[in-house]
Amino acid sequence: MSIQRIKKNDVVIAVSGSIAGKSGKVMQILADHKSAIVEGVNMVKKCLRKSQDHPQGGISEKEAAIPMSRIMLLCPTCKKGVRTARVKHNDQMIRKCKRCGFLFEGSVK
Ligand SMILES: [Zn+2]
User: Fold this and answer.
1) Nearest Cα to 43, choosing from 14, 1, 73, 3?
2) Rounded distance, CA 20 to CA 30, Å?
3) What is the average pLDDT across 59-67?
4) 65: closest CA among 98, 99, 19?
5) Which of 19, 45, 61, 69 could disulfide-pair with 14, CB 3.0 to 4.6 Å?
6) C-alpha of residue 80 to centroid of ligand 1, in Å
7) Alpha helices per DSSP H over the chain
8) How far away, in angstroms, is 78 Cα from ligand 1 center?
């Protein structure tokens, strides 16, 4: 069994580009595992066509996918994006912060 570097519901931080330093919860990992949708990060404005729901048309903001290479897992102890190591814990492979040793799945059954 492999373990993904970043998974759904992880809290991540963007590390490059105009969104650097913004953090949020992973809402969705895209099917190719190369990018993710992160809540409140990388918002793009979308123009809405006039429709029944939006008779005046309008602008909505929506999260755009972020390449995995631009986000890192946010360590609650280090308070920054960190690299993780995989360690065996209770017969499960879990992720550990390489800086402080925080276990990301330590409290999850
Ligand atoms: Zn840490």
Assistant:
1) 14
2) 20
3) 94
4) 19
5) 19
6) 8
7) none
8) 4
Pick among 3.40.50.300, 3.40.50.1820, 2.30.30.30, 2.40.170.20: CATH of 11-82: 2.30.30.30
pLDDT, mean over the chain: 90
Domain map (residue ranges) of the chain: 11-82
**Which residues, by Cβ under 5 Å, contact ligand 1, an ion?**
75, 77-78, 97, 99-100, 102
Its sign, for the CA torsion 34, 1, 6, 29, is positive
The 10s digit of each residue's pLDDT in 26-62 is: 999 998 889 999 999 999 998 888 888 888 888 889 9
| Coil, strand or helix at 18 | helix
Residue 35 host element (H or E)? strand 35-38
